[in-house]
Please model this.
Amino acid sequence: MSVFPALPEGRLGGRAGTVAICAIVAAHLFILPLPGGRLLLLAHLFAICGAVAFAASGTISPRVRAALLGVGLVGIRVSLGGLPLPAIDAARDLAVDPPNVQVTVAAVLAPLRGEQRVIVELGSARVLVSTPPNPQLFVGDEIECQLDFAELSGSSIERLRVRGVSASAQTRSVRLQGHRNFIEIIRNRFGDDIERVIPAPAGGLAAAITIGLRERVDERLATAFTATGLGHIVALSGWNVAIVLGAVGRALSGLPLRRRRWALVAAAMLFGIFAGASPSVIRASFMAAAALIGAASGRRGSGAIALAHAVLALTLLDPAIVFDAGFRLSALATAGLLARAQEWSNRAALMGEKFPGVVQTPWRFIGGDVAISIAAQAATLGVVIALFGRVALWSIPLTLLIAPLIPLATAAAVIAVVVGELASVLPSALLPLTSALAQPATALFQACAVVASEGAKLPGGALVVPRSATIPIGLLSTAIGWVALLRPYGSPPLASVDETENESAADRRLGQKLLAATCVLLLLGSLANSYASAAPRDTLRISVLDVGQGDAILVETGGRRMLVDGGPDPARLLTELDALIPSWDRRIDILVASHPHEDHLAGLPRLIDRFRIGGVLGAEERGGGPASAAWRRILDTERLQYRSVHAGDAFSLGQASISVLWPDTAYLAAEPTNDGRSLNNRSVVLRIDVHGFSALLTGDIEADIDPQIAARITTPIDLLKAPHHGSGTSASRLFITAADPRISIVSVGVGNSYGHPVAGTIARLSERGGLVARTDLQGRVVTVVDLETGAWHTSTSAGEMAVPSRAEIERLGSAFERVGLRVTDAVQPLRLADAPLAALGGCRLASATIRAWKAHGSFSRGVTTSS
Model:
């Protein structure tokens, strides 16, 4: 008697499924923390098991023979092809003094905190390397860099082994030697086309879902998809392959059936390779190919057998694939769907008949999808808990919202690829046409992004499992889930065929109408949002963008735009700009590069592919890091109009007059030193004046330049972009007294390693009664000036700010005791009029000032403290 349960062949693939399951189990044993020699000995033992399976074919159970065959095939593959993962002792020789090496990029991972992450091949080893965002790297690129290996601990070695790499490293400078992978060049060209016409972050999401460029998804949006359990939406899988095969099948409908099936096999495999060969899409491509080959050869098969063949083939091609989370979840989810999805969908339909009438109609649309989602969750929940230690509680309802949009969005994205290629060559006058053609894809992918982003804010979004309990709870959940999937159920009663077909046809027609109506509403909403985001032509709008630890300021008036700096993160800059600039008018008239530091320049090189740039202004081009070098190459090759500016220069933007206050030509004449302070003090400082309103954009100037700047500030400033992110070496009292701003905006990143902004600087900025806003606490800060009345207001992502009038500043400024202010460690906005002195952490204030604040409390709520 077989030791395996007699499972139906259509459910788990019969003996083919047994071979695949045992092969996967055997491959998992190579993660054991053993030296390489012992792991190879284990592989030899597995190979002997395979030999036993062939030699004893007549004396052992077919199921046992199938199990030994699966183990033996993996053993033979590892014995001949090498270990699937680096051995426990493989990383020791790499963590040495780093040479200047030339390596090949083997994989591009999702960015982390603005840095690129790539896996490179260093000899026979693979190394996970964090690099600056410029130059942008693709699979197959040959690069020269100096690797600074991170200190390896026991936990990091295990984590890196699972990724298939032997070490991790950091590099601060990358020199691109050339591109080798033609397929990757084409893929990324298509990704550029998509993002050229679909605004961020929807464009990056479209590139990920359509052609597998997951590294293009905005980091914050990717976090939202993960937190809500919607990561499977971003991963290419079965429905992408189905869409491609459906399109190819229609195109080849004139061919004989047998030839068409073999053509579809080729299409499935080619799409898997072109889409980046991620484990989930390769699994789907192999599974489709296995099913088509079986049909073409006339053999009886099922989905479960096709899945078993696909999983076995992939495991033998690369045993390391079994350690990939995407492959595990994709294979398990597919198995769960094959096991029970259809039956549970039927039971869900019967269950709906018992619901009240008002619930029955919507249940007919979602009941089957709910059952399918539950089947997939039952198959994968244990692995999710074991790998990630958390369960997204809103995953199923959010999946039901997004899933119907994905096929339509993918088809629309294919059109966007063509439109984006046209947009790169068409004149500016025709760009609104390309935007209109891409608008359906924009609306659909924006809707998906909103569902994930808002879903991440829902209460009780995730159940976190203690780290020590993830494995046992994961194993228990896996056992419960698969018992539910495999236990025998009685057959549900069946309705008559005619009744079922009539109800299905009616539901299908109604569902199509609802989906069409939803798409129309999304399209109208997307257009309305784009129109609403544009700056009114009769205003001046200054937006200090939330780009992390860096600067990027967008100035708009009269239909003209000026961008000052680009921040440290290209993806974050594009997301911020696309939230404010309509997709049919991607134009920046003046681009200002204040000085060549990474946190001001890194976002600019990739801006050229998305926006039409009128002209570039700057002062100092020498020095800087990789972003500065990439920017200089672009200035040399893209034929951009560049003009060097210095103190005394002036130009206009619409009705706004812009004066250059710094740097002096004499200061620029000297060669900059290598220290950051020298380049900071060469920042372009701009003053903007329009209808009685003034703003001062200061770059990263330090306090030792303040006397020169203060002498050139002839009238008080309404809006000040605080110098150097509020550092302790900037914004002296002399400078602040001369500027006397009504509001100061600190552009700074959350939890940055520099400690910006410091408490003393924040205290100096606010001690005369002006407001202080911070992008790390309040997000994007937008000031809008009415050019007819001169009135203006400031708002942040957190809400409207009540800015004090100039009269209030003058009346209250003298009431401040100019003493060293000690500020609390808690970084939060305070309504000082209502806060007791103890809550201010010992901030000593004159009694006159307290009384004045209480009398004018309407403006004090914007003051912000700092740690």
Notes: Confidence is low (pLDDT under 50) at residues 1-10, 495-499, 814-867. Residues 497-533 form the longest helix (37 residues). The longest strand covers residues 100-112. Residues 235-323 form one domain.
